[in-house]
Structures are given as C-alpha cells and as structure tokens.
Amino acid sequence: MELAQVEKVSKALADATRLKILYDMAGRQDDGTQCSGIVNMVNLAQPSDHIKTLLEADLITLEKEDRSHLYPVNRQNLRHDATQSKGIIL
Fold first, then answer.
1. pLDDT tens across 52-74, in order?
2. Mutual angle of helices 75-85 and 3-13, in 10-degree steps
3. pLDDT at 87 over 60
4. What backbone torsions phi and psi does residue 75 show, to the nearest 5 degrees?
5. Of 17, 35, 80, 87, which has fewest CB within 10 angstroms of its CB?
6. pLDDT at 31
7. Starting at the edge strand that comes first in sequence, how are the strands of the sheet with 33-34 ordered?
8. Torsion from C-alpha of 26, 31, 37, 41, nearest 10 degrees
9. Whole-angstrom Cα distance, residue 1 to residue 21?
C-alpha cells in the first residue's frame, strides 16, 4: 500500500463519526446506503464532508441511478487496506 493511501485511510478512520458510518454501512447486506440513511446513522443534517473523506480513501464508492445516489462499502479495498496496514510500524 502506498504511503499516500495509508494517510487517506488513516484520516478517514481517525474520526469517530466516519468510523461509525463505515461500521454501520459494512454491517448492511444491501447494495448501498443513500445519503438519507447515512444522516439517520449519525444524526447529522449534512454528512457530505464525511462522505467525501470516505470516498477519497476509497472505502466507499458512489453509484448514481437517476437522481438517487447510493454509497456501497468498497469491501475489496477495505479488506486489502486492513491486510496491508498490518505491516506498518508506528
């Protein structure tokens, strides 16, 4: 894993709100979560900054269908990042 990606993932997971969003989303078995679902998870009116950070870290993706936006967890990258980060010494 490149150092820049480690930094993005670390930043995304360092915030309790983003960690809760990702944890709740990962526990779902559907095709993704709409923004309104994320609002309900963390009781925030505007979770867009948190969504943006998770997208930049490639921990979630964006799927657009007409006017609907779904945010599925990028499970492949999540597993890869977790595996690769074991070798980092802090």
1. 999 999 999 999 988 889 999 99
2. 110
3. no
4. -60, -35
5. 87
6. 81
7. 33-34, 68-71, 63-65
8. -10
9. 23
